[in-house]
Amino acid sequence: MKNQFLLLIALAFTISTANSQDKKICVTIDDLPVVTYGINNIKFQQELTENLIRTFDKFEIPAIGYVNESKLYKDGHLDSARVNLLIEWVKNGYELGNHTYSHPDYNDTPDSQYFDDILKGQQIIQPLMDKYGMELRYFRHPFLHAGENSEKFDALNEFLNANQYEVAPVTIDNDDYIFAKAYHNAYVEKDKSLMKKIGKEYVEYMEQKLHFFEQRSNDVFGRNIIHSLLIHASFLNAEYLDELAAMYKKNGYTFVSQEEALRDEAYSTHISFYTEYGLSWIFRWGISMGLANKDLRNGDIEVPGFVMEVFNR
Ligand SMILES: [Zn+2]
């Protein structure tokens, strides 16, 4: 009896230490249904979507996809084949969020026009999610532009609150789109070895980014908060999400939902720093708490030169 009791205590201790060391990351995918760089072949887009979902299933990633509904239209008409790509997401249990209808830049869009674009961006996904028993809850700012001054920042947050949206901050901001476009260029050039080189470099870059933001999280909060990764629904990510997921696992991470990430109290940090730039919320929170912008940004990871070169072709 006594031994059983000790065993229980030992077990409870093991579980609690394991929890305190748990590293968690939420995977968010932007610009759904797909980022194609002009490849309008629907089969290509279906395969891209299926590849992403296969990896979510394989690694038990409760991913969320942020949608631009303007991309569901072809020649002014709703294209059911593109809507089907979103149905794949919800049918397989993956949540969608609102990323506005047409991806406007809040910096140069009047508030009322921007807010209309948000409402226009829920016309398809809201009923779709209702149908699959899900609730549309989250909003992601295009370009991560959240309001360049307190008036715009507050006005947007008030609008989102009134419309039952929660903002989905990003902690691991990165330039995956540069790698994705470079990868696309190499694909168009049918240069398989270059594609492979870019893919391998991409995973290494993302690992360095992870370590950079882990460090910044420690600087700002004294701990490693639940991270929110932003990547795009690109061909590169469809082909490399497996390796990315394995990299996060190797670094001790488990994958959590958008809801769980937002429950981390770091995400409730009051923001009093406003900028026209799109940047990690760890920077916004840290600067709001009195840390220096340049200290936080110091040592950020750059895209390698050869990737920039292929990107610019
Ligand atoms: Zn976007």
In short:
This protein is of the alpha/beta class.
Detailed description of the structure:
By secondary structure, this protein is an alpha/beta fold. It has a single domain (24-311), classed as Glycoside hydrolase/deacetylase (TIM Barrel). Helix content is 53%, strand content 13%. It is built from 13 helices and 9 strands. It has helices at 2-21, 42-59, 80-91, 111-120, 125-131, 150-162, 176-188, 192-221, 235-250, 258-263, 281-288, 293-297, 305-311; strands spanning 23-35, 64-67, 73-74, 77-78, 95-98, 138-139, 166-167, 227-234, 253-256. Strands 1, 2, 5, 8 and 9 form a 5-stranded parallel sheet that branches. Strands 3-4 form a two-stranded antiparallel ribbon. Strand 3 and strand 4 (77-78) form a beta hairpin. The protein is globular. 39% of the residues are buried. The protein binds zinc ion (ZN). The site of zinc ion has 5 residues, from strand 1.
List keywords for this structure.
alpha/beta, two-stranded antiparallel ribbon, TIM Barrel, 9 strands
What is the C-alpha radius of gyration, as a whole number of Å? 20 Å
Residue stretches low in confidence (pLDDT < 50, at least 5 long) are 14-18
Secondary structure tally: strands:
9
Coarse structural class: alpha/beta
Estimate the global geometry from the Cα principal axes: globular
CATH class: Alpha Beta
Discrete helix count: 13
- Mean pLDDT, to the nearest integer, reads 94
**Total tally of structural domains:** 1
